[in-house]
Amino acid sequence: MSARSLVVVSAGLSQPSSTRLLADRLTTATVERLSGFGVETSVEVVELRDLGHDIINNLITGFPSPKLSAAVESLTAADGLIAVTPIFTASYSGLFKSFFDVVDPSALTDLPVLIGATGGTERHSLALDYAMRPLFTYLHSVVVPTSVYAASSDWGTGADGGTGALPDRMSRAAGELAALVRDSERSSRVIDPFALPAGFSPVGGYGAQ
Question: What superfamily would CATH give domain 4-208?
Fold first, then answer.
């Protein structure tokens, strides 16, 4: 079986970041599951905090920087995606949404995606289902059934494994993603991540603003 590529998008703003921590735990669990399937996996992490200026400039000018272009090309050629964002005002962060706005809407078709989010309290967990899942459904990605939300209390006192049901949710979600990535045929596709001017649509969307 050929190797698989996994891209991890983390939209955490602080350093260290609980968002990145969750992304790392999900990545480790997924790679372990793929290894159990006999699949070798390469991982690339995209830290959106390092691409903030590039993303905004691209939305304004329509032209990606080399650094942003490389991140988008890696994403659109990947066999699987782990996407994790902090929840701000009951939804994903603006930086998270802006990054996916610069990707051609058809470039993530059939991409297996595991969605995760972090927040201060458990009451924001529904944002995964009413905000994040519809975003990737619109992009025609294949979102795994189990999403993972981690509140501050889930990490307990030692930030390594998580407490309560969090490790179980991470394990279940990682297993679902690994199964899809194992069977992915996206590596054989030829994808142009900038088939349209980044973030613009010929009818409606940014082009009409």
Answer: Flavodoxin domain (3.40.50.360)
What's the predicted TM-score (pTM) here? 0.86
* Bridge partner list, 6: 43, 80
Hey, where are the domains in the chain? 4-208
Q: DSSP alpha helices (H): ranges in the chain?
A: 18-36, 52-61, 66-76, 94-101, 127, 133-138, 166-182
β pairing state of 142-143 and 91-92 = unpaired
- Please compute Rg for the chain using Cα positions: 16
| β pairing state of 91-92 and 4-10 | unpaired
Residues 70 and 25: their CA atoms lie apart, in Å, by 24
Three-state DSSP state, 196: coil
Tokens of 7: 């891209």
Q: Tens-digit pLDDT profile for the chain (209 aa)?
A: 679 999 999 999 988 899 999 999 999 999 999 999 999 999 999 999 999 999 999 999 989 999 999 999 999 999 999 999 999 988 999 999 999 999 998 999 999 999 999 998 787 788 999 999 999 999 999 999 999 999 988 876 444 555 568 999 999 999 999 999 999 876 555 555 555 444 444 444 444 44
Amino acid letter for position 7? V
